[in-house]
């Protein structure tokens, strides 16, 4: 059976392409739909259906644009109530894609409309299940997101639904089925997903904590809800966009791809109060950037940090990028619903510097310099990693101020020089840019972060690094 997983690492997202006899189906597409259309064209296939496993919270799906451009029907599972034309399937309803059969299995729990799609090949053999956020590799979908949109859908109610869906709908299926989830490790839609992005259902029954056969419903609910971090603030807004509809990605790209000379860029920033977002790597940003700009580099979990740190999804944004990265920046913003990029700096930072305009910088030190300051007891250190990372191991004396909580703790940073770090330098440069934007200039970043501290054999770990408090 021809099933292709199309994985996008920056948001740990998996879409699926299924094709048979000149007909194709796309499951849970991303916002930018042209790659799916191109893939179908290569197979001389027509996209017949766009299947959605649920109303996604962590990204804006491409179902509307894909349906408009191809004539495909959008399919949701039972109970879905979109504000646009779609097929609302019944439990156990079947759809044909060439010689393949797609069977609807309603699996409420992550959300009420959550649906698993059973893939049946041309010989009638059950091949796999596209599970959305119902079942991940090593985990299951968190049940606390829907209540941010519908208040009476409590996490306990949905967790109970999920327990029943897994026991009554998923676990009775054949062990040799391949599990195709919507996300892998790094997604905020679960808490302990594997780095693997597919597995057999039989192996998941053996290894996934949520599928233990002797687990009671109350035990399941307790374990599922334990340790859930608060969801990113943009999640409910993405859900509503996926339910209500949104602007075409083509219009968003056209609006954002407006090249602005330094004069025009500065004027636009002053007139619109747009956020200046610099998507270059930390090592380039720190050497020189436009004052008051925020750095979130493209080469990591860009979309997730945009969603965590920019509270207003309708915020106008002016972009500073590496040359040739303008469209990619706009698309990756739009993946999580930030549709209001209004232009970019033509010629990038080189053009800004050549114009003679003011630039700002971030001071950085090596881990060797950090060790000297620690030895001299002259370093006030802030660790901007997640609490779980900090609890595992951290620099002795460092305070933990997770990046996503930074704005709540601005008053705690001293007037004298202080040092920040994360795991590898990506998050700490985001933090440094935000602190600088808030007028806190006495910040110093550590090149390579805590990872470099651990890898440097000349730094005595017993003296400077706290062992895990979780062991």
Automatic annotation (TrEMBL):
<dbReference type="InterPro" id="IPR036866">
    <property type="entry name" value="RibonucZ/Hydroxyglut_hydro"/>
</dbReference>
<protein>
    <submittedName>
        <fullName>MBL fold metallo-hydrolase</fullName>
    </submittedName>
</protein>
<dbReference type="InterPro" id="IPR001763">
    <property type="entry name" value="Rhodanese-like_dom"/>
</dbReference>
<feature type="domain" description="Rhodanese">
    <location>
        <begin position="375"/>
        <end position="458"/>
    </location>
</feature>
<dbReference type="Pfam" id="PF00581">
    <property type="entry name" value="Rhodanese"/>
</dbReference>
<dbReference type="InterPro" id="IPR036873">
    <property type="entry name" value="Rhodanese-like_dom_sf"/>
</dbReference>
<dbReference type="InterPro" id="IPR001279">
    <property type="entry name" value="Metallo-B-lactamas"/>
</dbReference>
<dbReference type="Pfam" id="PF00753">
    <property type="entry name" value="Lactamase_B"/>
</dbReference>
<keyword id="KW-0479">Metal-binding</keyword>
<feature type="domain" description="Rhodanese">
    <location>
        <begin position="270"/>
        <end position="361"/>
    </location>
</feature>
<dbReference type="InterPro" id="IPR051682">
    <property type="entry name" value="Mito_Persulfide_Diox"/>
</dbReference>
<dbReference type="InterPro" id="IPR044528">
    <property type="entry name" value="POD-like_MBL-fold"/>
</dbReference>
